[in-house]
Write a structure and sequence with these properties.
By secondary structure, the protein is mainly α. The protein has two domains: about 45 residues, Homeodomain-like (Arc Repressor Mutant, subunit A, Orthogonal Bundle), CATH 1.10.10; about 160 residues, Tetracycline Repressor, domain 2, CATH 1.10.357. About 75% of the residues lie in helices and about 0% in strands. The protein is built from eleven helices and no strands. The longest helix has 27 residues. The radius of gyration is 19 Å and the shape is elongated. It starts with a helix and ends with a helix.
Amino acid sequence: MKTRDKIVFAALEQFNEFGERNVTTNHIAAFLEISPGNLYYHFRNKQEIVREIFALYSDELLERFTPIQTQKESLALLKHYLDSIFTLMWKYRFFYANLPEILQRDEVLHNEYIGVQEKLQTNLVDIMRAFVSLGLVAVDEEEMKPLVRTLHLIASSWLGYQAAMSPKTKITEQVIHQGMLQMVSVLKPKATPQGFEQLQLFEDGVKAIHT
């Protein structure tokens, strides 16, 4: 792996473990056992590293939430998207946990974030339409965008909300699963009998992990 990539992945690991605001470029260099000068050869400052991580996140986000043109069984399709939410929230948890502060201090990153999220919301509406066509949810066109916006709001702000509710909150897989269950609770009232059954199966599976 190239040194530049090692720096990015080491920073991601450190940001997730200790919080982005608590990690400096010197911490990252020490973690990799390289000189600060070597790190600065690849990145001028920590913000450039954050932007690089965001680029990785954006690519993965849009790839995972591109509507799938497939005959995949509805339960498998539903699980694919819900699992993707968990994977991204866990892999890039520092970003979700401290999103407003990270964006407020970097206008370029903020504009990039807005552009990516606009693309994502378009994809999410198309995915919701696919769920309607598969008979999983009963949502008319007027309800589509508000429902997607609510689900998107929960996913993007859940970790920040948890941190705000308790200064001692540690981000764990269980905390992220709670966010997923919150999204399922929003979907359930819109589910068809088939969709409700599949959401319940998913919900039971998540709860079983932590019992």
